[in-house]
Amino acid sequence: MLLWRYYKSRIKALLPHEKVGVSYDWITKERVCARMPSLYVHVPFCQQKCDYCAFYSHSLRDSPKDLISVYLEGLEMEMAKRQKDAPQGVSSLFIGGGTPTVLQEPDLERLLGMIQRYFPMNLNVEKTMEGNPGTLTDEKIQLIRSFGINRFSLGIQSFNDELLSTVGRVHTAKQAREAIGRLRNTGFNNLNLDLMFGLPGQDMMIWQATIEEALSYLPEHLSLYGLMLEEGTPLYDRYSGEACPQREEQALKTTGDITIDSLPNEDTQAEMYEWVVKRLQQGGYRQYETSNFARPGYECQHNLGYWRGANYLGIGPGGVSCLNRVRWKNIEDVQSYEDLLCKGQSPLDQSGQEVLSLRECMAERMILGLRLGEGVELKAFNDDFGADLRDIYRDVLERYSARDVFVVKDGYLRLNSNYAFVANSIFQEFV
Ligand code: SF4
Questions:
Q1: If you take atom 6 of ligand 1, which residue's CA is the nearest one?
Q2: Domain stops at, among 244, 273, 307
Q3: Is 329 domain-assigned?
Q4: How many domains does the chain have?
Q5: With contact defined as beta carbons under 8 Å apart, do 108 and 146 qualify?
Q6: Confidence band for 239, pLDDT divided at 50, 70 and 90
Q7: Are residues 277 and 374 in the same domain?
Q8: Mutate which of 51, 56, 61, 99 to test ligand 1's pocket (most atoms within 8 Å of Cβ)?
Q9: Which of the listed residues 3, 8, 141, 424 has the most CB atoms within 10 Å of its CB?
Q10: CATH, residue 386
Protein backbone atom coordinates (compact mmCIF):
# COMPACT_ATOMS: atom_id res chain seq x y z
CA MET A 1 0.00 0.00 0.00
CA LEU A 2 2.97 2.24 0.53
CA LEU A 3 3.58 2.09 -3.15
CA TRP A 4 0.05 3.24 -3.97
CA ARG A 5 0.56 6.13 -1.57
CA TYR A 6 3.69 7.01 -3.53
CA TYR A 7 1.82 6.75 -6.80
CA LYS A 8 -1.02 8.91 -5.51
CA SER A 9 1.14 11.59 -4.01
CA ARG A 10 3.86 11.81 -6.61
CA ILE A 11 3.15 10.32 -10.01
CA LYS A 12 -0.52 11.13 -10.18
CA ALA A 13 0.32 14.76 -9.52
CA LEU A 14 2.71 14.68 -12.45
CA LEU A 15 0.62 12.70 -14.89
CA PRO A 16 -3.04 13.61 -15.42
CA HIS A 17 -4.23 10.35 -16.98
CA GLU A 18 -6.98 10.14 -19.49
CA LYS A 19 -10.18 8.79 -17.95
CA VAL A 20 -12.40 6.61 -20.10
CA GLY A 21 -15.63 4.79 -19.59
CA VAL A 22 -14.29 1.37 -20.50
CA SER A 23 -16.23 -1.32 -18.72
CA TYR A 24 -14.70 -3.77 -16.29
CA ASP A 25 -15.69 -6.70 -18.46
CA TRP A 26 -14.07 -5.15 -21.50
CA ILE A 27 -10.74 -5.48 -19.78
CA THR A 28 -11.14 -9.02 -18.61
CA LYS A 29 -12.48 -10.27 -21.97
CA GLU A 30 -10.41 -8.34 -24.46
CA ARG A 31 -7.15 -7.60 -22.76
CA VAL A 32 -5.17 -10.74 -22.24
CA CYS A 33 -2.31 -10.28 -19.79
CA ALA A 34 0.91 -10.15 -21.71
CA ARG A 35 2.86 -10.60 -18.51
CA MET A 36 1.99 -12.54 -15.40
CA PRO A 37 0.62 -10.08 -12.84
CA SER A 38 1.41 -9.95 -9.16
CA LEU A 39 -1.49 -10.19 -6.72
CA TYR A 40 -2.23 -7.71 -3.93
CA VAL A 41 -5.09 -8.40 -1.51
CA HIS A 42 -6.21 -5.43 0.57
CA VAL A 43 -7.50 -6.06 4.10
CA PRO A 44 -8.97 -2.71 5.16
CA PHE A 45 -9.15 -3.17 8.92
CA CYS A 46 -6.99 -1.93 11.80
CA GLN A 47 -7.35 -1.98 15.57
CA GLN A 48 -7.63 1.81 15.40
CA LYS A 49 -6.39 4.48 13.03
CA CYS A 50 -2.89 5.86 13.52
CA ASP A 51 -2.77 9.67 13.60
CA TYR A 52 -0.76 10.00 10.38
CA CYS A 53 -2.55 7.38 8.30
CA ALA A 54 -4.34 8.22 5.07
CA PHE A 55 -4.55 4.64 3.82
CA TYR A 56 -8.00 3.22 3.40
CA SER A 57 -8.82 1.17 6.49
CA HIS A 58 -11.59 0.91 9.09
CA SER A 59 -10.97 1.06 12.79
CA LEU A 60 -12.42 -2.20 14.11
CA ARG A 61 -13.49 -0.44 17.28
CA ASP A 62 -15.90 1.76 15.33
CA SER A 63 -17.11 -0.80 12.77
CA PRO A 64 -20.28 -2.91 12.74
CA LYS A 65 -19.65 -6.45 13.97
CA ASP A 66 -20.47 -8.13 10.66
CA LEU A 67 -18.27 -5.89 8.47
CA ILE A 68 -15.52 -8.50 8.17
CA SER A 69 -18.03 -11.12 6.94
CA VAL A 70 -19.37 -8.63 4.40
CA TYR A 71 -15.80 -7.95 3.28
CA LEU A 72 -14.97 -11.65 2.90
CA GLU A 73 -18.13 -12.31 0.92
CA GLY A 74 -17.28 -9.48 -1.48
CA LEU A 75 -13.68 -10.62 -1.72
CA GLU A 76 -14.67 -14.13 -2.72
CA MET A 77 -16.97 -12.78 -5.46
CA GLU A 78 -14.23 -10.52 -6.80
CA MET A 79 -11.63 -13.29 -6.79
CA ALA A 80 -14.00 -15.61 -8.67
CA LYS A 81 -14.49 -12.88 -11.28
CA ARG A 82 -10.86 -11.89 -11.57
CA GLN A 83 -9.01 -15.18 -11.61
CA LYS A 84 -9.22 -15.12 -15.41
CA ASP A 85 -6.96 -12.05 -15.42
CA ALA A 86 -4.11 -14.33 -14.36
CA PRO A 87 -4.44 -17.34 -16.68
CA GLN A 88 -0.82 -18.35 -16.07
CA GLY A 89 -0.94 -17.67 -12.36
CA VAL A 90 0.54 -14.80 -10.37
CA SER A 91 4.19 -13.91 -9.89
CA SER A 92 3.94 -12.92 -6.20
CA LEU A 93 1.39 -12.32 -3.46
CA PHE A 94 1.17 -9.48 -0.97
CA ILE A 95 -1.61 -9.42 1.63
CA GLY A 96 -1.56 -5.90 2.99
CA GLY A 97 -3.73 -3.30 4.58
CA GLY A 98 -4.77 -2.12 6.94
CA THR A 99 -3.61 -4.80 9.31
CA PRO A 100 -4.39 -8.28 7.95
CA THR A 101 -3.46 -9.84 11.28
CA VAL A 102 -6.38 -8.17 13.10
CA LEU A 103 -8.59 -10.84 11.52
CA GLN A 104 -9.43 -13.68 13.90
CA GLU A 105 -8.25 -17.18 12.98
CA PRO A 106 -11.44 -18.41 11.26
CA ASP A 107 -11.54 -15.25 9.09
CA LEU A 108 -7.84 -15.49 8.31
CA GLU A 109 -8.31 -19.12 7.35
CA ARG A 110 -11.19 -18.19 5.05
CA LEU A 111 -9.15 -15.42 3.42
CA LEU A 112 -6.07 -17.58 2.87
CA GLY A 113 -8.20 -20.49 1.68
CA MET A 114 -9.87 -18.42 -1.04
CA ILE A 115 -6.55 -17.06 -2.28
CA GLN A 116 -5.26 -20.63 -2.50
CA ARG A 117 -8.40 -21.73 -4.37
CA TYR A 118 -8.59 -18.93 -6.93
CA PHE A 119 -4.89 -18.12 -7.36
CA PRO A 120 -2.89 -21.32 -6.68
CA MET A 121 0.84 -20.65 -6.40
CA ASN A 122 3.98 -22.76 -6.27
CA LEU A 123 5.82 -23.11 -2.98
CA ASN A 124 8.72 -20.92 -4.09
CA VAL A 125 6.58 -17.91 -5.11
CA GLU A 126 7.14 -14.99 -2.72
CA LYS A 127 4.04 -14.62 -0.50
CA THR A 128 4.06 -11.77 1.99
CA MET A 129 1.65 -10.86 4.74
CA GLU A 130 1.69 -7.57 6.61
CA GLY A 131 0.87 -7.32 10.27
CA ASN A 132 1.33 -5.24 13.37
CA PRO A 133 2.65 -6.00 16.85
CA GLY A 134 -0.10 -6.77 19.33
CA THR A 135 -2.21 -8.66 16.78
CA LEU A 136 -0.05 -11.76 16.34
CA THR A 137 -0.58 -14.95 18.32
CA ASP A 138 1.41 -18.18 17.87
CA GLU A 139 -1.76 -19.82 16.53
CA LYS A 140 -2.25 -17.12 13.87
CA ILE A 141 1.39 -17.32 12.81
CA GLN A 142 1.21 -21.10 12.49
CA LEU A 143 -1.96 -20.78 10.43
CA ILE A 144 -0.34 -18.23 8.14
CA ARG A 145 2.69 -20.49 7.70
CA SER A 146 0.50 -23.50 6.97
CA PHE A 147 -0.89 -21.62 3.94
CA GLY A 148 2.61 -21.10 2.56
CA ILE A 149 3.14 -17.45 3.49
CA ASN A 150 6.93 -17.26 3.37
CA ARG A 151 7.64 -13.58 4.06
CA PHE A 152 6.33 -11.35 6.83
CA SER A 153 6.34 -7.57 6.99
CA LEU A 154 5.99 -6.17 10.50
CA GLY A 155 4.95 -2.54 11.09
CA ILE A 156 7.15 -1.49 13.98
CA GLN A 157 7.85 2.19 13.07
CA SER A 158 9.84 2.84 16.26
CA PHE A 159 11.15 1.08 19.36
CA ASN A 160 10.39 4.18 21.41
CA ASP A 161 7.09 4.01 23.30
CA GLU A 162 6.68 7.77 23.62
CA LEU A 163 7.00 8.26 19.88
CA LEU A 164 4.63 5.39 19.16
CA SER A 165 1.98 6.90 21.36
CA THR A 166 2.55 10.40 19.94
CA VAL A 167 1.58 9.21 16.46
CA GLY A 168 -1.31 7.07 17.70
CA ARG A 169 0.18 3.61 17.25
CA VAL A 170 -1.69 1.20 19.52
CA HIS A 171 1.20 -1.17 20.22
CA THR A 172 4.30 -0.86 22.36
CA ALA A 173 7.96 -1.58 21.68
CA LYS A 174 7.68 -4.62 23.97
CA GLN A 175 4.92 -6.05 21.78
CA ALA A 176 7.11 -5.45 18.72
CA ARG A 177 9.95 -7.43 20.33
CA GLU A 178 7.55 -10.24 21.21
CA ALA A 179 6.16 -10.32 17.66
CA ILE A 180 9.65 -10.62 16.18
CA GLY A 181 10.44 -13.46 18.60
CA ARG A 182 7.20 -15.28 17.71
CA LEU A 183 7.77 -14.93 13.97
CA ARG A 184 11.33 -16.21 14.23
CA ASN A 185 10.34 -19.10 16.54
CA THR A 186 7.64 -20.16 14.09
CA GLY A 187 10.18 -20.39 11.28
CA PHE A 188 9.84 -17.09 9.37
CA ASN A 189 13.27 -16.57 7.85
CA ASN A 190 12.31 -13.71 5.55
CA LEU A 191 11.28 -10.81 7.74
CA ASN A 192 10.82 -7.14 6.88
CA LEU A 193 10.62 -4.43 9.53
CA ASP A 194 8.91 -1.12 8.65
CA LEU A 195 10.43 1.89 10.44
CA MET A 196 9.73 5.62 10.19
CA PHE A 197 11.83 8.73 10.55
CA GLY A 198 10.78 12.36 10.85
CA LEU A 199 8.34 11.55 13.68
CA PRO A 200 7.37 14.29 16.16
CA GLY A 201 9.92 14.39 18.95
CA GLN A 202 12.36 12.08 17.18
CA ASP A 203 15.99 13.15 17.18
CA MET A 204 19.09 11.48 15.79
CA MET A 205 19.79 9.57 19.00
CA ILE A 206 16.30 8.09 19.16
CA TRP A 207 16.44 7.19 15.46
CA GLN A 208 19.85 5.58 15.84
CA ALA A 209 18.68 3.57 18.87
CA THR A 210 15.71 2.24 16.88
CA ILE A 211 17.91 1.26 13.95
CA GLU A 212 20.51 -0.43 16.18
CA GLU A 213 17.81 -2.42 17.94
CA ALA A 214 16.24 -3.40 14.61
CA LEU A 215 19.63 -4.60 13.36
CA SER A 216 20.12 -6.72 16.47
CA TYR A 217 17.24 -8.93 15.24
CA LEU A 218 19.03 -9.53 11.91
CA PRO A 219 15.99 -8.80 9.68
CA GLU A 220 16.39 -9.80 6.07
CA HIS A 221 14.77 -6.56 4.89
CA LEU A 222 14.11 -3.03 6.17
CA SER A 223 11.69 -0.44 4.77
CA LEU A 224 12.36 3.09 6.00
CA TYR A 225 9.91 5.87 5.17
CA GLY A 226 9.90 9.50 6.23
CA LEU A 227 6.68 10.70 7.85
CA MET A 228 4.39 12.39 5.33
CA LEU A 229 1.73 14.75 6.61
CA GLU A 230 -1.37 13.74 4.69
CA GLU A 231 -4.36 16.05 4.54
CA GLY A 232 -7.33 14.84 6.55
CA THR A 233 -5.28 13.07 9.21
CA PRO A 234 -5.09 14.15 12.87
CA LEU A 235 -1.35 14.68 12.52
CA TYR A 236 -1.86 17.00 9.56
CA ASP A 237 -4.39 19.01 11.58
CA ARG A 238 -1.96 19.18 14.49
CA TYR A 239 0.75 20.65 12.26
CA SER A 240 -1.23 22.59 9.71
CA GLY A 241 0.14 25.92 10.96
CA GLU A 242 2.23 28.06 8.68
CA ALA A 243 5.52 26.59 9.85
CA CYS A 244 4.43 23.13 8.81
CA PRO A 245 5.24 23.02 5.09
CA GLN A 246 8.77 24.14 5.79
CA ARG A 247 8.95 21.58 8.60
CA GLU A 248 10.37 24.12 11.04
CA GLU A 249 11.18 22.80 14.50
CA GLN A 250 8.09 23.25 16.64
CA ALA A 251 8.48 22.66 20.36
CA LEU A 252 5.04 22.63 21.89
CA LYS A 253 5.45 20.66 25.08
CA THR A 254 7.97 18.50 26.83
CA THR A 255 7.30 15.07 28.31
CA GLY A 256 10.06 13.12 30.05
CA ASP A 257 13.25 13.20 27.99
CA ILE A 258 11.53 13.90 24.69
CA THR A 259 10.15 17.12 23.34
CA ILE A 260 6.84 15.79 22.11
CA ASP A 261 5.15 17.48 19.18
CA SER A 262 8.34 18.83 17.66
CA LEU A 263 8.75 17.84 14.04
CA PRO A 264 12.31 17.32 12.87
CA ASN A 265 13.07 19.84 10.14
CA GLU A 266 14.19 18.90 6.64
CA ASP A 267 17.90 19.09 7.49
CA THR A 268 17.48 16.74 10.44
CA GLN A 269 15.46 14.35 8.30
CA ALA A 270 18.13 14.41 5.61
CA GLU A 271 20.77 13.65 8.26
CA MET A 272 18.67 10.74 9.55
CA TYR A 273 18.37 9.36 6.05
CA GLU A 274 22.05 9.81 5.16
CA TRP A 275 23.15 8.24 8.42
CA VAL A 276 20.91 5.19 8.03
CA VAL A 277 21.98 4.59 4.42
CA LYS A 278 25.62 4.39 5.53
CA ARG A 279 24.85 2.36 8.65
CA LEU A 280 22.89 -0.26 6.74
CA GLN A 281 25.56 -0.53 4.08
CA GLN A 282 28.09 -1.24 6.83
CA GLY A 283 25.67 -3.83 8.21
CA GLY A 284 25.63 -5.76 4.92
CA TYR A 285 22.36 -4.43 3.50
CA ARG A 286 21.99 -3.35 -0.09
CA GLN A 287 19.93 -0.25 -0.78
CA TYR A 288 18.05 -1.59 -3.76
CA GLU A 289 15.42 1.16 -3.71
CA THR A 290 15.32 4.66 -2.20
CA SER A 291 13.50 3.45 0.94
CA ASN A 292 14.24 -0.27 0.90
CA PHE A 293 17.24 -2.25 2.07
CA ALA A 294 17.83 -5.99 1.92
CA ARG A 295 20.41 -8.60 2.64
CA PRO A 296 21.51 -10.14 -0.68
CA GLY A 297 18.78 -12.29 -2.16
CA TYR A 298 15.99 -10.90 0.05
CA GLU A 299 14.80 -7.98 -2.10
CA CYS A 300 10.98 -7.83 -2.16
CA GLN A 301 10.01 -9.39 -5.50
CA HIS A 302 6.47 -8.07 -5.25
CA ASN A 303 7.50 -4.44 -4.93
CA LEU A 304 10.26 -4.87 -7.52
CA GLY A 305 7.48 -5.80 -9.93
CA TYR A 306 5.77 -2.42 -9.37
CA TRP A 307 9.01 -0.50 -9.81
CA ARG A 308 9.92 -2.41 -12.96
CA GLY A 309 6.53 -1.77 -14.57
CA ALA A 310 4.98 -5.24 -14.27
CA ASN A 311 1.22 -5.88 -14.33
CA TYR A 312 -0.59 -6.13 -11.02
CA LEU A 313 -3.99 -7.10 -9.71
CA GLY A 314 -5.30 -5.44 -6.56
CA ILE A 315 -8.25 -7.26 -5.00
CA GLY A 316 -10.47 -5.97 -2.19
CA PRO A 317 -11.95 -2.54 -1.41
CA GLY A 318 -9.37 0.11 -2.29
CA GLY A 319 -7.29 -2.36 -4.34
CA VAL A 320 -5.50 -0.89 -7.37
CA SER A 321 -4.86 -2.87 -10.56
CA CYS A 322 -2.90 -2.20 -13.72
CA LEU A 323 -3.02 -4.56 -16.67
CA ASN A 324 -1.43 -3.65 -19.96
CA ARG A 325 -1.74 0.12 -19.59
CA VAL A 326 -5.24 0.09 -18.09
CA ARG A 327 -5.40 1.05 -14.42
CA TRP A 328 -8.36 1.07 -12.08
CA LYS A 329 -9.11 1.29 -8.40
CA ASN A 330 -11.80 -0.43 -6.35
CA ILE A 331 -14.22 1.56 -4.27
CA GLU A 332 -13.05 2.36 -0.74
CA ASP A 333 -16.12 1.19 1.12
CA VAL A 334 -16.69 -2.39 2.24
CA GLN A 335 -20.49 -2.32 2.05
CA SER A 336 -20.66 -0.64 -1.39
CA TYR A 337 -17.92 -2.97 -2.65
CA GLU A 338 -19.94 -6.01 -1.65
CA ASP A 339 -23.25 -4.53 -2.87
CA LEU A 340 -21.82 -3.85 -6.34
CA LEU A 341 -20.40 -7.36 -6.62
CA CYS A 342 -23.71 -8.87 -5.44
CA LYS A 343 -25.43 -7.04 -8.31
CA GLY A 344 -22.87 -8.47 -10.75
CA GLN A 345 -21.24 -5.06 -11.27
CA SER A 346 -17.60 -4.11 -11.08
CA PRO A 347 -16.61 -2.60 -7.71
CA LEU A 348 -14.73 0.38 -9.20
CA ASP A 349 -14.47 3.75 -7.50
CA GLN A 350 -15.96 6.83 -9.14
CA SER A 351 -12.78 7.68 -11.03
CA GLY A 352 -13.37 4.66 -13.26
CA GLN A 353 -10.51 3.41 -15.32
CA GLU A 354 -7.55 5.19 -16.77
CA VAL A 355 -5.92 4.22 -20.03
CA LEU A 356 -2.34 5.33 -19.85
CA SER A 357 -0.84 6.61 -23.07
CA LEU A 358 2.45 5.12 -24.18
CA ARG A 359 4.17 8.34 -23.20
CA GLU A 360 2.68 8.23 -19.70
CA CYS A 361 3.72 4.60 -19.27
CA MET A 362 7.26 5.46 -20.28
CA ALA A 363 7.35 8.36 -17.80
CA GLU A 364 6.10 6.10 -15.02
CA ARG A 365 8.69 3.50 -15.88
CA MET A 366 11.41 6.14 -15.61
CA ILE A 367 10.10 7.69 -12.39
CA LEU A 368 9.62 4.38 -10.58
CA GLY A 369 12.68 2.69 -12.09
CA LEU A 370 15.05 5.48 -11.16
CA ARG A 371 14.15 4.91 -7.50
CA LEU A 372 15.84 1.53 -7.86
CA GLY A 373 19.55 1.14 -7.19
CA GLU A 374 19.83 -0.83 -10.44
CA GLY A 375 17.91 1.87 -12.38
CA VAL A 376 15.89 1.27 -15.56
CA GLU A 377 16.91 -1.66 -17.72
CA LEU A 378 17.53 -0.45 -21.28
CA LYS A 379 16.56 -3.76 -22.87
CA ALA A 380 13.32 -4.12 -20.89
CA PHE A 381 12.35 -0.56 -21.86
CA ASN A 382 13.10 -1.36 -25.49
CA ASP A 383 11.15 -4.62 -25.34
CA ASP A 384 8.11 -2.95 -23.79
CA PHE A 385 8.01 0.30 -25.75
CA GLY A 386 9.92 -0.48 -28.94
CA ALA A 387 12.30 2.43 -28.42
CA ASP A 388 15.62 3.20 -26.80
CA LEU A 389 15.06 5.35 -23.74
CA ARG A 390 18.27 7.27 -24.55
CA ASP A 391 16.58 8.46 -27.75
CA ILE A 392 13.24 9.22 -26.11
CA TYR A 393 14.81 11.21 -23.29
CA ARG A 394 17.87 12.53 -25.12
CA ASP A 395 17.10 16.15 -24.15
CA VAL A 396 16.81 15.37 -20.44
CA LEU A 397 19.93 13.23 -20.36
CA GLU A 398 21.96 15.86 -22.20
CA ARG A 399 20.71 18.63 -19.90
CA TYR A 400 22.06 16.80 -16.87
CA SER A 401 25.14 15.25 -18.45
CA ALA A 402 27.58 17.87 -17.14
CA ARG A 403 26.63 17.06 -13.55
CA ASP A 404 26.72 13.27 -13.96
CA VAL A 405 23.17 12.98 -12.63
CA PHE A 406 22.56 9.84 -14.68
CA VAL A 407 24.84 6.86 -15.11
CA VAL A 408 24.58 4.27 -17.88
CA LYS A 409 26.26 1.04 -16.87
CA ASP A 410 25.81 -2.70 -17.53
CA GLY A 411 22.67 -2.19 -19.57
CA TYR A 412 20.91 0.06 -17.02
CA LEU A 413 20.33 3.81 -16.67
CA ARG A 414 20.37 4.87 -13.05
CA LEU A 415 20.32 8.00 -10.93
CA ASN A 416 23.61 9.01 -9.33
CA SER A 417 23.00 8.33 -5.62
CA ASN A 418 24.27 11.85 -4.72
CA TYR A 419 20.99 13.15 -6.15
CA ALA A 420 18.62 10.80 -4.30
CA PHE A 421 17.30 13.52 -2.00
CA VAL A 422 16.39 15.84 -4.89
CA ALA A 423 15.12 13.03 -7.09
CA ASN A 424 11.55 14.30 -7.26
CA SER A 425 12.51 17.53 -8.99
CA ILE A 426 14.60 15.57 -11.50
CA PHE A 427 11.70 13.15 -12.14
CA GLN A 428 9.58 16.11 -13.32
CA GLU A 429 11.79 16.17 -16.39
CA PHE A 430 10.38 12.88 -17.66
CA VAL A 431 6.79 14.06 -17.76
S1 SF4 B 1 -1.75 0.25 11.21
FE2 SF4 B 1 -1.07 0.95 9.18
S3 SF4 B 1 -2.92 0.95 7.89
FE4 SF4 B 1 -3.58 0.80 10.04
S5 SF4 B 1 -4.02 2.89 10.66
FE6 SF4 B 1 -1.89 2.47 11.26
S7 SF4 B 1 -0.65 3.12 9.49
FE8 SF4 B 1 -2.78 2.98 8.81
A1: 50
A2: 307
A3: no
A4: 2
A5: no
A6: confident
A7: no
A8: 99
A9: 141
A10: 1.10.10.920
Ligand 1 atom 8, closest CA: 53
Q: Is residue 316 predicted with pLDDT exceeding 70?
A: yes
**376 belongs to a structural domain:** yes
Residues 144-191 pLDDT 10s: 999 999 999 999 999 999 999 999 999 999 999 999 999 999 999 999
CATH classification at residue 54: 3.80.30.20
Domain-located, residue 137: yes
Predicted confidence (pLDDT) per residue in 361-374, tens digit: 999 999 999 999 99
Residue 184 lies in a domain: yes
Digit-coded pLDDT (tens) for 205-220:
999 999 999 999 999 9
Choice from 2, 4, 5, 55 to test ligand 1 binding pocket (greatest atom count within 8 A of CB): 55
131 Cβ inside 6 Å of ligand 1: no
The verdict on pTM exceeding 0.85 is: yes
Residue 270 shares a structural domain with residue 396: no
The pLDDT, as a whole number, for residue 18 is 37
Cβ–ligand 1 contact at 319 (below 6 Å) = no
Residue range of the domain that includes 390:
358-430
Give the alpha-carbon dihedral of 388, 393, 397, 400, to 10 degrees.
-160
